[in-house]
Amino acid sequence: MIILDGKKTSQEIRNEIAEEVKTISAKGGKKPHLAAVLVGNNGASITYVNAKIRDCEEVGYTSSLIKLSETISEKELLQEVAKLNADEDVDGFIVQLPLPKHIDEQKVIMAINPEKDVDGFHPENLGKMALNLPSYLPATPMGIMDLLDRYNVETGGKHCVVVGRSHIVGLPASILMGRNSYPGNATVTLTHSRTTNLKELLQDADMIIAALGKPNFITADMVKEGVVIIDVGTTRVVDKSKKSGHRLVGDVDFKEVSKKAGFITPVPGGVGPMTRVSLLKNTLMAVRKKL
Predict the structure, then answer these.
(1) pLDDT at residue 241 in the model
(2) Are the C-beta atoms of residues 141 and 279 closer than 8 Å to each other?
(3) CA gap 231, 253 in Å, rounded
(4) How do 263-264 and 246-249 pair as beta strands?
(5) Which residues contact 190 (CB under 8 A, 6 or more apart)?
(6) Is residue 125 packed enough to be buried (19+ CB in 10 Å), middle (13-18) or exposed (0-12)?
(7) Are 275 and 172 in contact (CB under 8 A)?
(8) Taking the alpha carbons of 84, 85, 87, 90 in that order, is the dihedral positive or negative?
(9) Kind and range of the H or E element at 189?
């Protein structure tokens, strides 16, 4: 069993990005500028955005954080998006999800300039991804592809079962795994809450991408020997032995499933760090377009 170490791999990629930023600066180019919009006080979102800011500092990017009230109106948020679209110094930006319930997330995503959509959520970028055209890929699926690539995990001809069909992870991951490229060329089954024979499909899978948000949902009896496990789930569960009072748990029962897996991502330290570094990669791509 081989651990797909996202923490280690993302650090390698950050080092590569930092070197390229130094080269751009040495030639008189500007520092890449990544901005983030944070609405409200969601604890997980705050932690995540702060980590993104630290990542930017490490690789030599300029970073901006726009903090907005939970009670901001949809109109006001769209005005903030319009400002970032118009700011020539900002190369890419994200609006951290989830947003308060009174705001239409899709309307906000649609308002982002696709050229600055480094989260890869805009329909223009998703459409280009589906057609295998150059685009910003959604950060988490992109991180998964990089992890498979860096560990030389064979994907061609494999049966890949994706659990969860969200527009952020499951659906784009299924498209990427089915594309005529590496990683890709897999036979993909996209499963969801209406799938009636999930256990049977999982037992047949050569690869499983779990992104449903149910802790320890996939157990050892659901998988076959040598399976590749990509665990996207991160659920906080109470753990009084931890200083924070909680710990992160994935969608896969790591302790038992790892005994059968050929490759597996840990939680934490697997897909999460790869998601963050993907934002840096997309922002660098935005800068390259201007060089």
Answers:
(1) 77
(2) no
(3) 10
(4) unpaired
(5) 162, 165, 170, 171, 174
(6) buried
(7) no
(8) positive
(9) strand 187-191
Q: Is the omega angle on the peptide bond into residue 32 within 30 degrees of 0, that is, cis?
A: no
The DSSP result for 191-258, as a single string, is E-TT-S-HHHHHHH-SEEEE-S--TT-B-GGGS-TT-EEEE---EEEE-TTSTTSEEEE-SB-HHHHT
As to burial, measured by CB atoms within 10 angstroms (0-12 exposed, 13-18 middle, 19+ buried), residue 276 is buried
Say what the pLDDT of residue 285 is.
Answer: 96
Q: Quote the tokens at residue 31.
A: 């520092």
| Angstrom distance (rounded) from CA 189 to CA 209 | 10
CA–CA gap between residue 76 and residue 72 (Å, rounded):
6
Phi-psi bin for 97: left (phi > 0), alpha (psi -120 to 50), beta? beta
First to last CA, the chain: 43
Average of per-residue pLDDT values in the chain = 95
Tokens found for residue 58 = 């490490």
Whole-number percent of the chain with pLDDT over 70: 100
| Residue 126 Ramachandran class (φ > 0 left, ψ -120 to 50 alpha, else beta) | alpha
Domains with residue ranges and CATH for the chain? 28-113 (3.40.50.10860), 139-272 (3.40.50.720)
DSSP result, 31-82: PPEEEEEEES--HHHHHHHHHHHHHHHHHT-EEEEEEE-TT--HHHHHHHHH
Q: Which residues are catalytic?
A: 52, 96, 119
- How far apart are the C-alpha atoms of 268 and 215, rounded to whole Å? 13
Phi-psi group of 185: left, alpha or beta (phi > 0 → left; psi -120 to 50 → alpha; rest → beta): left
Please write the tens of the pLDDT for every residue from 202-240: 999 999 999 999 999 999 999 999 999 999 998 888 777
